[in-house]
Fold this protein.
Amino acid sequence: MFKVMFLLSADADDPFKCKGPEAASLAQTLFAGLAGYYQSRSMTTQIGDVQPVYSGVAEFWFQTPDAAVAAGLVDISSLLRVNVSVRSVVVGMERVVLRTPDYLVVPRVKGVFPFARKPGMSVADFQHHWWHRHGPIAALTENATAYIQVHPLPAEYAGRTPQFDGITEISWRSTPAALSAMASRQMSEDQSTDAGNFVDRDTV
């Protein structure tokens, strides 16, 4: 699947105008060929007590890359509250490293981590390392219900440099499960050490 993620400004508690069927109906009027729409809202309590950079993420799925690229140019203000702005847009291929069978039916919290590649690293080398080397390490994330990579499409690099070279999404069943995983040796050492091989840490 191909995915468009609109990262929204952090000046509102809830950036979305509506949710449920009403939001789905609005999204259908904006996008031809829309295969799915998901709203993520920032929690007031963040891991490590850091302030959230974004107030939410509007996520849209499409069957073709061309539809996703076109969707990345759409004005989604009709889905948002007043004074909420789009800070960044990532158009990419959703690559699932891990997803448990009950992922869609259990309550969950999700970590959303946009980042840029290590300076001097080519896009091809970056994506290869992230998928083939880091993916198997990340698949061992403690108690995760999903670990997903969003790789920007080649069209996103045509004549420009995107703000982010990828977004990692990690889901857990609860905030305590997320906190435990973030503090684990597997994430703080194994994943963190490998991240230094392909991630510009200052951009995470």
Summary: The radius of gyration is 17 Å. Strands lie at 2-8, 34-41, 56-62, 86-99, 109-117, 146-152, 166-172, 199-200. The chain is about 25% helix and 30% strand.
